[in-house]
Amino acid sequence: MKIALLNDTHFGARNDSPAFLDYFMRFYNEVFFPYLKEHNIKTFVHLGDVVDRRKFINFKTAHTFRQKFMKRLWEEGIDTHIILGNHDTYYKNTNEVNAITELCTTYDGKHEPWIYDKAKTVNLGGLDILFIPWICDENYEHSIKEIDTTKDQVAMGHLEIKGFEMNAGHMNMQGLEKSMFHRFEKVLSGHFHKKLIYNDKENDYTKKDLSAFENTFVKVFVTNKTNEEMFNNLIDRLHNTVDTHEVNIIEDLNTDITASVKENILEEGEDTLTFLGNYVEQIDTDLDKDKLKKVVKELFTEAIEK
Prior knowledge:
Blueprint: E1 3-6, H1 13-16, H2 18-38, E2 43-46, H3 59-75, E3 79-83, H4 99-103, E4 113-116, E5 120-124, E6 127-132, H5 140-149, E7 154-158, E8 165-167, E9 170-171, E10 186-190, E11 196-199, E12 217-224, H6 228-240, E13 246-250, H7 257-268, H8 272-282, H9 289-305
Parallel strand pairs: 1-2, 2-3, 3-4, 6-7, 7-10, 11-12, 12-13
Antiparallel strand pairs: 5-6, 8-9
C-alpha cells in the first residue's frame, strides 16, 4: 500500500497572499495530484497545519481550498485522513473547534476526510499507525497514555518534541522528550519548519549545503555576522546556485524586533510564545536564558489578560 503524506500546507499563509496561494496550487496541480495518479496512490495523510491562522480564513482562500484541493481529493477517490495541527484549532486548550471540521463536508459519505482531534490507532493497508494530533490540555492525558501503551510501531502526528531543529541551526527546546518515542520504529511529524539562522561565530557557511532551500522562499535571520565576505558569498549562492523564489534578510533583530515579531505572528498563528522563546535562545548573553524565558512568558501572559 502506498500512502501520500503532506504537512504544514498553511493555506492562507502570508496574510492570505494571492501569490503564495497561486504558488501552492501550482504544486498541487503540477506535482502532487499528477504524482498520485501516476503511482496509483489512493490514501493520503495530512500531518497537520492545513491552514495558516487559527482565528479566521479569507473567503477566497477557503473557496480555493475546498474546490481545488479537498474536492479534487474526493473526485479522484483519495481516502483522506487529516491529523489536526496547532494552526488548525481555534482554542488553545481543545481541538474540538477547528477549521477542518468547519470547512470540509462529506460529499458522498464514503470518501470523506477523516479528521483526528485526539490520538487514535488507524489501520492502513494492514499496518496499525498511531495518529497523534496537536497535544493540548483537553487531550494531553489521553495522548500520553496512547503513546506509552500502544503496540503500534509507527506514529504520525503534529508533534512538538525537544531536541529537533525548529529552524535551520536552531534546536527546539520545548515540548515532549524524544525518549517518549524510542519504542516506535518510525515517527513522522509536521510542525517543524526550516529557516536559515546566520551565526558565523559558531558556523562556517563557506561550503554549506543549500539544496534544502531549492524552490523555496528563504528568510535569513542574522544573529551574528563577523565575516562580511562569507555572508555575501552565502547570499550570492542563495540567489544564483539554487533556484530560490525569494531571499529576505533580517539583520538587526535587536532594533527590528517589533517587525520580526509581527511577521512571525502572522506566519505561526498562536505560537507567539514559541517565537519569543526561540528569540531569547538566539540572544548572545551570559544571562540564564531559562529564567529570561520565564520572565518573558509571565509578561506575555499578563499582557494578554489585560
